[in-house]
Amino acid sequence: MRPDQLPEHSDRTLEARVPEARTPEPAGGASGYGGDTDRPGTDLGWLLDDLVARTDHVRQAVLLTADGLPLSCSDGMRRRDIEHLAAVCAGFHSLARSAGERFAAGGVRQTMVMLDDAYLFITPAGDGSRLAVLSEVQTDVGQLAHEMELLVRRVGRHMAAAVRSAADPAGP
Fold this sequence. Notes:
Elements (H helix, E strand, L loop, with lengths): L13 H4 L27 H10 L3 E8 L4 E4 L5 H24 L8 E4 L3 E7 L4 E8 L4 H15 L17
Antiparallel strand pairs: 1-2, 1-5, 3-4, 4-5
C-alpha cells in the first residue's frame, strides 16, 4: 500500500499508517526487549501515551529518526500531522546540532521552540532517534523537560533507530 492510499487516521500502529516507519531493534538486536516484546515492530505508542497522560497540557508526542521519519506517536494523531511534525523536529534538532558544532558549544541536550500558543520540545532519544513533544503554553516547561529526560533515560535504548544507508529500500 502506498502512503497516499493510507487512511488519515486509523489504528495507532504506526507501521499501518507510515510504511517506512518501524520501531527499531535496540542496539545488539531484538533480544534487548525481553518478554513478549522480543520482535521488531513493537509499537512504543503506549509509552508516549503515558507521557501525554501524566504531564499536564501536553498535546502530542512523536518518536522519530534523526532524518525525520516517524517511528511511533501518541494516540489521536493523523498520518500527515505525524509526518509533518517528525520532519520539522528533525530539522530543528539538526540546526541546533550545527550551531553547537559551529560555535564549540557542545552537543544538543534539548531543543525548545516557543510558539504563540504552544511549546515544541525535541530531545535525543537513543541512537539515531529523537523524542518530540508538543504542549500548550500553560505547561510547566521544567516538569515536561524532566519527564522527557526520565522517559529517555528509562527506555532510550529501545528508542534507538537503525541508520539507513543510501541503498536502504525503506529510504526515499
